Amino acid sequence: MKLALIVLASLWAAPLAQAASQPDPAADLQGFQGYFLKRFPKVPLAAYVNGPYNFSKSERDQWKQIIEFPPYAFAVADGKTLFDTKFANGKTYASCFPNGGIGIAQTYPMFDAKTGRVVPLGVAINRCRVANGAAKLSLTTGKLADIEAYMTSTSDGKPIDVVVPHDPRALAAYQAGKEYFYSRRGQLNFSCASCHVQAAGMHLRGDVLAPALGLTASFPLYRSSWGDVGTLVRRFIGCNKKVKAEPEAADSTAYRDLAYFMTYMNNGLPIAGPGARP
Amino acid sequence: MKGFRCGLVLVGLLVPVAASAAVASKASAASAIAAAQAEMKLAASMQDQWIATVAAMKDARLALKQGDFAAAETAAVHAKALASLSVEQAKAQRALWVNEAVH
Q1: Domain A30-278 falls in which CATH fold?
Q2: Residue from B49, B36, B81 nearest A254 by CA
Q3: What are the positions of the active site (chain A) (predicted)?
């Protein structure tokens, strides 16, 4: 009888323990979005793509002024020109992407089963260049950010749709990104979550801290303090430095996985990029 | 007697300075830098290098180049200590991060 109980108990305990350690992106997504909806009941889900503007009237007013003449309009126009320009071999970017690269930004970062790695849109653009005999571009700003701005503008309003396939390597990448997001680092001992979850909606010096939900949806974006359009990776670098940690390489697996986790958490929210911030 | 005591105190104050100046050589500075570098490699592999660590290492290398071996060694020891702290932080976070996760 006793033995039977122990056996039963262990049978019951084993799958539970496994469930806790197995990455479960779909369950995480529900919990993550539910957390913010419950905490800020007045902010509808889709409004999270506007980041800090839900939490500060003065920033909202500034924003309204900014988007009357969207500062990213030049980047989108330049990006389109670059996108349509032929490589030396006569091909264009369109040849590298499904649907000719139009209206597909919401599916990035994408897991690439061939290499077993996560491919954010910027990396995909560089891959396309290399495949067509062109040199890689900087992943943070400049021409690549412009091309990304154009491609993202063709996805405006489409629900973010990042897929974590049932591939152990994809699940591992997702989990690594999640761990990076929640791990404290740097001399100040802060995690991304310290500021963008725990302190979301609060003020840090002049800024309102944007909640982690929706955080990726407006990228690439124009920041007045940058004076031009920057990519998500550029922001990762800036936020690492804020906590006195050395940033990772722009093309690192750490940043790819981080973008994978963060964007997956935004699944279902509309693309609102390129964006603008004061 | 009073003067003797004073002298002792003076010697006591001078000894550590004199000792480190005498001990630091090009070789000892270089080995302190190598030790710091190894620890920094570990910190980077755990995705937690501190900006201050890199700055201290830069100071160490510059001092070495300028022939100030004592300063080079001091800065390298500092860099290694900072790197070790970040490694400790990263090790602890491997278990602790789940506490911050939103489910």
Answers
A1: Cytochrome Bc1 Complex; Chain D, domain 2 (1.10.760)
A2: B49
A3: 239
